[in-house]
Structures are given as structure tokens and as C-alpha cells.
Amino acid sequence: MPGSPSYDIRRLIKAAVEEQYGEESVDRYLDLDATQRTIIVDDWHELQFTGKSKGAIVEHLKAWFGKVIFLTSRLYALEELAEAGPARKMFAEFEFCDIKEFGKRSTGQLIEKWHSLGQEGTLDARDFHYAVACSEDKVAAVIRKGILPTFPIFIIGLLQADTSASSSSSRNAGAYGHILELIITDRLTMVSKSATDIGTMYTYLSRIAYRMYKNDRLFLSGQELSEVHTEYCTIYKMRLSETNVVADLVQAKIIRKEGDSYRFAYKGLYCYGVARYLFENMVQAESTLRRELDEMTDRLAWEDYTNIVMFYLYLSRDPMTIERLLDNASKIYADCKPASLDDDVSFVNRLMKERPQKITLPSADISVNREEFRKKQDAIDAENDTQVMVAPDNRVPYQPALHELVKIAIGLQTLRVMGQVLRNFPGVLTAEPKLRLTEASYLLGLRILRRALDLAQNQMQELRTNFAEILKENHPLSTQEELEEGADQTLIWLTGAAAYGVIKRICKSVGLKDLELTFEEVRTKLGGSTSVRLVHLSIFLEYFRDAPKSQIYELEKAVRKNPFSYKILRDLVSEFLYLRNTDFRLSQEMGALFEIETSKPEYMLNKALGVGARGKED
User: Fold this and answer.
1) What is the pLDDT of residue 484?
2) Res. 157: pLDDT tops 80
3) How far apart are CA 371 and CA 109, in angstroms?
4) Which residue among 358, 493, 552, 584 is buried most deeply as judged by most CB within 10 Å?
5) Angle (nearest 5°) at CA 257 between 254 and 262
6) Is residue 184 very low, low, confident or very high in pLDDT (cuts 50, 70, 90)?
7) Hey, is 588 helix, strand or coil?
8) What residues have CB less than 8 Å from 453, skipping those under 6 apart?
9) Contact 316, 182 (CB under 8 A)
10) Does the pLDDT value for residue 594 go beyond 60?
11) Is the distance from CB of 105 to CB of 379 less than 8 angstroms?
């Protein structure tokens, strides 16, 4: 809505309808009953009208629309609406809402609606669930680490970006960087007159971000922002209006003003800006910037450093940084052999005296299962938000003497960055660096797992005693034999959870269908250890459309006498059947092999799935 007193509500409505639905739809829309029309007014707080004029607009809109939604800033709501006055009076009949970020459940529901839009009668169940799983993985990769908030508008933007990227040759390029660039460019386009202006804004933003990085804080004062502006104009010989540039960036919602300070709207924009500065200036100032980049690459337990390095590698594919990353990975738990999940879990196998019980899946309806799974994830996230375990100072390079939590954090973040490089450039990196990055990712994850297993084995008696004491406090009438059995089961569960979690972390870090040949080569090179085979299977179950049945049968035969690894294999297959599989024949076949059944077998024969019979293909 323009900042002019001479407004014409009807004219503005017609223009908006024409822009969104086309000229031919204007009359049809205006002929609708008011109860059938809805209007959303964005940035209400930026409208430079008097209270009386704003009130008149509100009354006009209420007459024209059955539902009127005003989007405004939290600050406006607190300052204008909390106190008695014109604003509070004009919105007296309105309901005040706060836009919440989506959790896993709402995000999943939105993704399912996105993939079913316009295809409700023609969807193939297997293709649909595979597409939903792929989109959830890509969205989670960007959102779960705080790069962007989980507001619906961002999720839809990510889905649109993925759709547009899927139709181009750069389909998988930049799971982080590519998507964030699309969002930044889209916002800058709203306030820029030409492509040249957008390029200028990118560089300008990078200098704001780098100044924040040098100041070691996420905001600049108005004076500091003026210094950045002056420096930019001097270096690039440009004559720009600071007032106009800053106003454009605020309007584009890339930076925001808070009192006398400015900060990026979202953490991801800051991290990308720092990475862009390093990329654009590395040649001119390599001695300084290379040192800073190396320091960040060596300190990946710090979340901001992880994101900056990932964005930098997206922009540059810098071989020196990749080499440093690989070298750092090789030093993490270098004294530990990679877990094989063969002889190194014999101490747990000795505790496993009973044959695993049957697994009963609640349903074979994948949509229902995924919904329940997301609800449980939301519950876990809510609990973690209130019980955050903070490691000691984690802006440090890896050293063997560090706190165990910090070493594990550095290892997992290094794994994540190497995996992101792989997933960004499957068709750009040549075979040799892809092989090295994938192999290093497997080995790093398995060394972390070996460390966890060694800790459990070396402290087994102490752990068993402590677990028994805890159980005795909660179950004072239990016999000593029952307490010892309960303590053993707790130790079995903890080691199993660690092994399953690391295997899934490796899978989630490097998994991508386009890397199939690289995965096969790594499996061959690293030999036939059970751990490598389980990682390989986990990737294929997670990222490929069809289950690799021959791998499952071979692994099942190999681990029959290894209860610990057999349980991990069965859990991987169970999760696939529970969350991804739509082939009822495969469910029956795997159920018979692993003693997995469903509590609602009627779904197994649901012909509405549209899935035909399949043989034992790989």
C-alpha cells in the first residue's frame, strides 16, 4: 500500500488481484461475497499515515473482505497495541497472533501438500513418499542448523528453489549456498533496478558481515555501519547514498534496525556474508584471510565457523581448504581404529543372552507413521530446548587433551562439512577428491564410534555398578540378579544407540543418490567390515528409491552370530519399512526374515497404494 493520502482501496485491490490471478479474474473475484475474500496486508507498521487515515483503511478492508490479516513487527505490537490509543481501538475486534516457527510435523505436512498439489488423482505412492523424504532431508539440512527459521514462507521458498534447481544442470549444487543465494537474490530484486545493483549489494553486505566477524559480535552500531559504507565507496570508487542503501537492505529484510544498531535478519545471511567476503578478497589479502579461514576450519565445533566454511567452499571449491579439512579429519581420534562392529563389540555380545524379541510396527500406512515420527521429533526438540548441554569453550582447534564433548563436536562438525562439500558438487568434483572426502567421512565417523565403544568397554564394570544403583533407587524390591540384568540391558541400549546414531550421522552427512559409484568404490576400498557395510546399506535405504535386497540378505547372513550388529541391521530395515516402504510384498518378505510384523496387517493389502508385485531385484 503506497505511502500517499490519496488512496483508492478498490483500485489497489483490483491491481493486486490482477497481479496475482490475471486480468481476466478481476471481475470474478470482485463478484465474490465478502465472506469468500481474504486479504493479507504486509508491513503494516511501515505505513506512514495518521491514525485516522489508518483507521479508515481498516474499516474499508473490513467491509470488502470476510477475513483481514495484518502483518506487523513485534515492536509495533508491543508499543502501539499494548497501550490504549488509536491503534488499539482500530484493532479491537481483531485476534492477535504470533507467527510460530514450524516443527517437524508441520514442516512435513506442508511438504506433503506441496508434492500432492495438482496431482491428487495421479500420484504413485512410492514416488510420492520418496519425493517427500528427499524434500524433508533437504529442508532439514538448511533449517535445522539455524541458517534460516522454519517459517512456512521459508520452507515454501526452499521447495521452490529445489524445484527450479531440479530442472537445471546444477540440480544438487549448493544444498546450503545455492538455496540461500536464491533467497538473497529474490529479496534484492525487490529493491534493485538492475543486475548490477544486485552484485553491488552482495559485495556491500559481505563487508558488513566481515566487520561483524572482526568485531566478534552480530551487530554494528550506526557509526560502524557508516564506516563500512565510507570504506566501500572509497575502495570501489562508488558514490552511493548510505541512507538509501541501508533503507533498501532493511526493506528487503536482509538486515534489520534495532535501536541504533543493525544486524542481519537471520544467522545464515551473516555466515554467508563472511564467506562471500573471504571469497571475493582472498587473492588481494591472502596472507591475512587465509590465516583467518584456516583458524575457522580448525575450530568447527563453533557453529558459525562451520557455516562460514561450508558457504566458502560452496563459493570457491578451494582445494587448499578441502586439503586442510581432510588433514584435520585424519587427526581426530587418530589413535583409534575405525569401529568394525565385529570383534570390537564382543564385550556387548557377551551381555546379550536372549534372542531379540519380535518388532511390531504400529502400522504399514507410511503417511500415518511419518506423522507419528515427526510428532516424536518435535517432542524431543522441545525437551532439548529446555535441557541444553553446553560443552566447554568450543572455539578451539582439535587436541587429544580436549574435553571429550568438544572432541566429539569437532569430529561431527568436520564430518558435516565434508559431507556438505560432497553433496554440493557431485557433478563438479572429480572422482579422486570425491573418493577421498567420502572415505574420510566414513573413517572419521567410525573412529568416533570406536572411541565411544572403547569408553564403554574400559569403564564397563563401573557403568554396570552405577546403572544398578540407579535401578535400585527406583525399584527397591528388585533382586540383585534383576538389578544386574537391568544394568546390562542399559549398557546394551547405550552402546547400540551410539552405533546406530553414528551410522545414521555418516549416512545423513554424505548421502546422495548421485554419489552411488563413489559409495561402491569406498565400500570396496575399505573392505568388508560390518560397520562399512551397515553405513553403505543405511545410505541406500535412505536416499535410493528401492531397497537393495541383495545387500540386506548378504548382511543378515553375515551377522547372524553377531547379536549387536544384527540388531542394528534389523533396526535399519525396520525404520525403512516404517517410514519409507510402500511395497507390501517387501514388507512381508523382510518381516519374515527379521521377525518384523505390523499391528494393522489390513494395510498390507491396500490396493490403493498402486504398487505392483516385485521380485528380489537389487
Assistant:
1) 79
2) no
3) 8
4) 552
5) 80
6) confident
7) helix
8) 339, 344, 345, 495, 498, 499
9) no
10) yes
11) no
Residue 473 — φ and ψ, nearest 5°? -65, -35
Residues constituting the chain: 618
Record the cell numbers describing residue 358, joined without a space.
519380535
- Which residues have C-beta within 8 Å of that of residue 293, sequence separation ≥ 6? 278, 282, 309, 312, 321
Mention every residue, 6+ apart, whose C-beta is less than 8 A from residue 174: 181, 314, 424
Residue whose C-alpha cell is 491514525: 51
Three-point CA angle 53, 22, 43, nearest 5°: 35
515-562: pLDDT as tens digits: 999 999 999 999 889 999 999 999 999 999 889 999 999 999 999 999
Contacts of 496 (CB under 8 A, 6+ apart): 348, 564, 567, 568
Q: What percent of the chain is helix, strand and coil (3-state, nearest 5)?
A: 65, 5, 30
Q: What is the full DSSP assignment across 64-100?
A: H-SEEEE---HHHIIIIISSSSHHHHHTTTSPP---P
For residue 226, which of 206, 210, 246, 209 has the smallest C-alpha distance?
Answer: 246
The pTM (predicted TM-score) of the whole model is 0.81
Q: How confident is the model at residue 162 (pLDDT cuts 50, 70, 90)?
A: low
Task: Count CB atoms within 10 A of the CB of residue 84.
Answer: 8
Please give the C-alpha separations between residue 151 and each of 134, 155, 177, 478, in angstroms, as whole numbers: 19, 7, 19, 50
Helix (H, G, I), strand (E, B) or coil at 187: helix
Q: Are strands 596-598 and 359-361 parallel, antiparallel or unpaired?
A: parallel
Task: Give the tens place of pLDDT for each residue, 485-522.
Answer: 788 888 889 999 999 999 999 999 999 899 999 999 99
Residue 466 has pLDDT above 90, yes or no: no
Q: Tell me how far apart the alpha carbons of residues 530 and 97 are, in angstroms, rounded to a whole number.
A: 53
Distance CA 245, CA 227 (A): 14
Cα 64 from Cα 67, distance rounded (Å):
9
Tally DSSP H helices, then E strands, for the chain. Answer: 27, 7
Cα–Cα separations (whole angstroms), residue 478 to 99, 140, 464: 50, 44, 16
Using CA atoms, how far residue 555 sits from 360, 552, 586, 617, in Å, is 22, 5, 17, 16
Distance CA 591, CA 361 (A): 10
Mean pLDDT of 574-596: 88
